Amino acid sequence: MTVLQTANLNLRSFSEEDLDDLSALMANSDFMRFSLGVFSREQTIGFLEKVQERDHKGLPSQFAVILRSTRRLIGFCGFFQQTVDEVEEIEIGYRLDPTHWGRGFATEAARIVRD
Against a cut of 0.70, is the pTM above it? Predict the structure, then answer.
């Protein structure tokens, strides 16, 4: 089910069927470069469960980013909860498959999430 749509992307809630593709992405060091490092499949399961739990509770969370032309999962974009100076803050963050960097997809996804 598409929640948000742009010219090139569909953003939707994650599902159990995303685990294999998400695991491959999160095992990629370039995909995870600006994060905590690569994730194992077990860590990816934990991430997916956390995202789905927040989504089910109606809390700010992540969307699966699907490239419309291929219908493939290329990353995620949405809301991250961060602690800044001991204050809980919400920010928009994203991770995209490095093969899709430089095409404006991150900006496109972040804008539709923001709006």
Answer: yes
